[in-house]
Specification:
207 residues; alpha+beta; Nuclear Transport Factor 2, Chain: A; 5 helices
Length: 207
């Protein structure tokens, strides 16, 4: 009886196929949807889902984000504050950070469907739940368990690159995982009229 040993070529083909599947999941572009009235909702330049995954000089960079392009979103906004470092933390920052930590905890626990469900509508509009789960299983799960996480920076802003306007909070975390000790997680959140902070972007960079 012969024992079949997969060749290196077959392994490379499989890896290439899996990589193409991941990139296919996260490389769709959703175009402009604007009606004649130009309402805030219909006047949004639809967000694009952009993921770059590359390997260079031992550094793997994964960017998974909903990228705003020239949008103008104007829901009722909570009070803004840029005072998120030093001294007492602002209520706005504290609330946003609490939301981000809760969301990241679900991610740590492998509850990828729940992270999608609790994400902002802009994120869910462009990434179907099954595709989000598949992407997280392929990209986030291999990092292993999160052992430590601390805030390394934060910023409150009303405009994102590309011109999207709203109430945003961006928080960076320095995180150690069992399989990757140095990882930067970047969470972008948005506050809506009848909702509190919700995650709309998750960026992950490993060294």
């Amino acid at each position: 009886m012969k024992t079949l040993i997969p060749s290196r070529k077959n392994k490379d083909t499989k890896v290439h196929h899996e990589t193409c599947q991941i990139l296919a999941i996260v490389s769709k572009l959703i175009f402009l949807n604007m009606n004649e009235k130009g309402s805030p909702k219909d006047g949004i330049v639809r967000w694009c889902e952009f993921v770059s995954l590359f390997l260079r000089k031992g550094i793997i960079v994964l960017l998974f984000c909903a990228s705003p392009l020239l949008a103008d979103i104007s829901p009722n906004r909570p009070p803004q504050s840029n005072d998120t470092t030093g001294g007492s933390l602002s209520p706005v920052y504290s609330e946003a950070n609490s939301t981000a930590i809760s969301w990241l905890t679900l991610l740590d626990q492998g509850q990828y469907s729940a992270t999608w469900s609790q994400g902002g509508s802009l994120l869910k509009d462009i990434v179907p739940q099954n595709q989000w789960v598949a992407a997280m299983q392929a990209i986030r799960k291999p990092l292993g368990n999160a052992t430590t996480r601390k805030v390394s920076g934060s910023q409150a802003t009303e405009t994102l690159p590309g011109g999207t306007k709203g109430s945003f909070m961006i928080i960076n975390y320095q995180t150690s995982f069992s399989n990757k000790p140095f990882v930067t997680e970047k969470i972008t959140m948005m506050a809506w009229t009848h909702e509190r902070w919700q995650v709309i972007s998750y960026d992950l960079q490993t060294k």
